[in-house]
Design a protein that fits this description.
There is one protein chain. The protein contains eleven helices and 15 strands. By secondary structure, the chain is an alpha/beta fold. It has a six-stranded mixed sheet, with helices on both faces. The two termini are 41 Å apart.
Amino acid sequence: MTLHAIQVPKWGLAMEEGTLTSWLVDEGATISAGEEIAEIETSKIANVLESQVTGTLRRQVAAEGDLKPVGALIGVVSDAEEDETAIDAFIADIEARFETEEKDVNSAPTPQQVSVNDRTLRFLKVEGGADVPILLLHGFGGDYLNWMFNQAVLASGRDVYALDLPGHGASSKDVGDATPQFLADTVAAWMDAQGLDTVHLVGHSMGAGIALALALSQPERVKSLVAICGVGFGGTVNADYVEGFLSAQKRKDLKPVVQMLFANEDLVTREMLDDLIAYKRIDGVDDALRLLIDNALAEDGLAALQAQLPELSMPVLALYGEQDRVVATPDASVRPEGAIVIAATGHMPQMEAADVVNGHILAFAAAND
């Protein structure tokens, strides 16, 4: 059997290192491809590492608590009979090559900013090819980093853009009347500024409602639409979440709110909470979030959007988190035809089950280019 290296994964374009917080399997254990074998925490999120191979975990090269750069060796998988000398040589070779490997620190794309309708909008573009681009729209309180596990993978044959919506991230905090249509028109104006005639739209949560408004008002610009835990796609918004997010001013108050986003609450890190608190302290953010709750997430407005779903002319794929506590997963009778519920995920399946979500988006875009 070939020896296989387990290395620190690159979760997101900006990830440079991760802490091995725990091994989930013991040295000498038999593991299967797809099995969760370790927990790794980055500056943005904690996540589990799945094995890519089947075999025996012969060596845990890194110990719990070790901080390792992306690509560093943390374990070795082989069969149970592999010679220890061969494993030692394999480890030495991997580590020597890693230490001498030249790393292009400038290879990762950096966010850009553009002025649209007197507002600054930040976005990240990952170049991938000439096929119809994908545009990713995050949800309430998020930013382009909500797609950290998705954007680079999706840039296979096409460019992929992730936009900070008004009121979020480094974009202007002026959200206008904060209706889905206003935000959709802003996205369309941003597309004009980038020279994008048509895109595959992928929206998460509130971003899905904005995508839906854009698809209804300018259908010629939307090649296909993927909604992930989308408002306007049958689920009701948990007022405790949005009001709790708005009101929380300290980490201890924000933590139980943010944990509602995930089926696995351990994914919430101190750094994630600190970043959110820093964002919420920016001048204008509270007012923007208040307007978004009252208008973009208003029940009557979302019901009106949902009523227009049958009018969409482009292909639509709705993805839901099985354990979503923020936008309740609707009954099968309410979901759009072909909807998929992703097991063991909450409101952020694009993070909790990135490989599954990426696979669905890639296949759907390819089928509808």
